[in-house]
Automatic annotation (TrEMBL):
It is an enzyme of class 1 (oxidoreductase). Keywords: Oxidoreductase, Signal. The keyword Metal-binding does not apply. It comes from the Bacteria. GO terms for molecular function: oxidoreductase activity. Its EC number is 1.1.5.-. This is PQQ-dependent sugar dehydrogenase. PROSITE patterns: PROKAR_LIPOPROTEIN (PS51257). Residues 51-374 form the Glucose/Sorbosone dehydrogenase domain. PANTHER family: ALDOSE SUGAR DEHYDROGENASE YLII (PTHR19328:SF75), HEDGEHOG-INTERACTING PROTEIN (PTHR19328).
């Protein structure tokens, strides 16, 4: 069931934390300013504002937060203030490209490595690139390029760029760069999920490592533009969502070597109308676990496991850039069994969603006045 929920708009603030004000309420009724959803009643707090097209969020062990801005800044939020991290590599800020995801090495507390994905220029075009560096206070040291999703192509669409870790390996999404036929071409890294070692090498057990003409880093293919990805902590499954064309945004559960169908099968349509491919299922491809038609333009994905909202534990949360809201997906036995729309009337383009170490759910809102928000229990 999809339920539309309204909330008071949070106040812009840089530095301190503000809480949407509450007035006295009658026993049994939610306080003023609270949002009542199917499974929880919560408030929206503004942690910080004044961000310019923020894209990704990561939590440091000392309680600081890292935020990327698409224009090329990496920021550290500490004691209520943003500080700029020096030493970020040169990025290509072109259309949807720029500085994108940031992720901490699984052993960050011991080695200090962070990973960045970004759009890079080269050979007459642009490509998704992965690099890493050691975070040394407010600077990046020992930066090295680990991987480039070649070939470089013209245009600034569909860079993908989410990063996760599993079993000692790194997974990176790469969009098909606006060339839909590339998603089926194993000679290109476009429209693929890529699996690497933490040093950027290709594992020798990748599914296409011995296939002639195939790029060895490919783990799965037939993706359009995946901008949300998580590893389920209980099952180890990788879940990702990806943008469809006009409709057909997909949530997929990943299998090694599998073809996820783009553009051979899709629930979406051509821009301007008209189908160009049959709807799933299609033999030889994996159908999505869930899809959004019409498109919500999903970005950011989190699996909530905190204690602040017990009824949300195990649910997926995805941001929406088009039909602006926060989507909550209920999972049961590896399937999506329910969906709820939160913050439907707040008018926020949600770029990233993270489950914080403090048990709260964090959001980054898109745009030239982006904000870092968090959801907290209303009581």
């Amino acid at each position: 069931m999809i339920r539309t929920i309204a909330t008071a708009a949070p106040r812009r603030l840089l530095g301190a934390v503000t809480l949407v004000a509450a007035s006295a309420c009658t026993a049994g009724e939610p306080p003023a300013g609270a949002v009542t959803s199917d499974e929880a009643t919560f408030r929206v707090e503004t942690v910080a504002g004044g961000l310019n097209q923020p894209w990704s969020l990561a939590f440091l062990p000392d309680g600081d937060r890292l935020v990327t801005e698409r224009g090329g800044r990496l920021l550290r939020l500490s004691d209520g203030e943003f500080r700029t991290i020096e030493g970020v590599p040169e990025v290509a800020t072109v259309n949807q490209g720029g500085l994108l995801d940031v992720a901490l090495h699984p052993d960050f507390a011991d080695n200090g490595w962070i990973y960045l994905s970004y759009a890079a220029a080269g050979d007459g075009g642009y490509a998704t690139r992965l690099g890493r560096a050691r975070l040394d206070d407010d600077r990046l040291a020992d930066f090295e390029v680990l991987f480039t999703a070649e070939p470089f192509v013209r245009g600034g669409r569909h860079f993908g760029s989410r990063i996760v870790f599993r079993d000692g390996y790194l997974f990176l999404t790469a969009g098909e760069r606006g060339n839909k036929e590339h998603a089926q071409d194993l000679d290109k890294y476009h429209g693929k999920l890529i699996r690497l070692t933490l040093d950027g090498d290709v594992p020798d057990d990748n599914p296409f490592v011995d296939e002639s003409g195939a790029r060895p880093g490919i783990y799965s293919y037939g993706h359009r533009n995946p901008q949300g990805m998580i590893v389920h902590p209980d099952t180890g499954d990788i879940w990702l969502h990806e943008h469809g064309p006009q409709g057909g945004d997909e949530v997929n559960r990943i299998r090694a070597g599998a073809n996820y169908g783009w553009p051979l099968a899709t629930f979406g349509e051509n821009y301007g109308g008209g189908r160009f491919a049959p709807e799933p299922p299609l033999e030889g491809t994996v159908s999505p676990v869930h899809h959004w038609t019409p498109s919500i333009a999903p970005s950011g994905l989190a699996l909530y496991q905190g204690d602040a909202f017990p009824a949300w534990r195990g649910d997926l949360f995805a941001g929406a850039l088009k039909l602006t809201h926060l989507a909550r997906l209920e999972l049961e036995a590896g399937e999506v069994v329910g969906e709820e729309r939160l913050l439907d009337d707040a008018g926020m383009r949600i770029r990233d969603v993270r489950s914080g170490p403090d048990g709260y759910l964090y959001l980054l809102t898109d745009g030239s006045n982006g904000k870092l928000l968090r959801l907290v229990p209303a009581d």
